Amino acid sequence: MRTTTVGDVTILLPDLDPDDLDSTTEPGADLTDAHVDDVSWRGAVLDAVRVRGSRITGSGLSESSWEGGTVFGCEIVRSDFSGAALSGLSIERSVLTGSRFTGARLTDVRLKDVLFDGCRFDYATFSRVAASGAVAFVDCILTDATWSSCRLPKVVLRSCQLARLELESSQLHGADLRGNSLRGLKTTLANLYGVILTEEQLPDLTHLAVGEFHIEVRAQ
């Protein structure tokens, strides 16, 4: 069993053998033990597609629509989901590396044992995204993104760019935000209830509090 640890969270990883994967270029209702490499599915409509034990590399799914379905035990590498609409999708025991989700819309997505490593989520919208297991974002770009009504307890963010990330009515209790700058985060303090920070981040938290409470700071 392959695992990785980010902060205090241990994530189960997919265990793929390249020799067991069959190359394919066509999306279907079920992709099992498949290798999808450098394929363009731009604008594709993926209705309840199930992907299991597969590897997707260098492929384009921008402006695609993926409703329902599951991603289990998969590796997704350097693939483009810009402007995609992902709805009702379940992602479990998977690693997404160097992939682009710029302007993507994730709605009612369920995450469990998922690692996002070096991915772009700038201008992406997370709506009612929920984690039921370990989830981590490492070296990800989340600038100008929006998380609305999300439930991501104990999620780990490491070395991510969070400028102008907007949090609305989200639950992040136990989320580990150490190693990120909070300056420019667009949120009320209620969305940060119970998160984990370092002492070095307290000035950023103070800055958020001063803005939220409209405190006027003057020279003595």
Automatic annotation (TrEMBL):
Pfam families: Pentapeptide (PF00805). InterPro entries: 5peptide_repeat (IPR001646), Pentapeptide-BTB/POZ_domain (IPR051082). This is Uncharacterized protein YjbI, contains pentapeptide repeats.
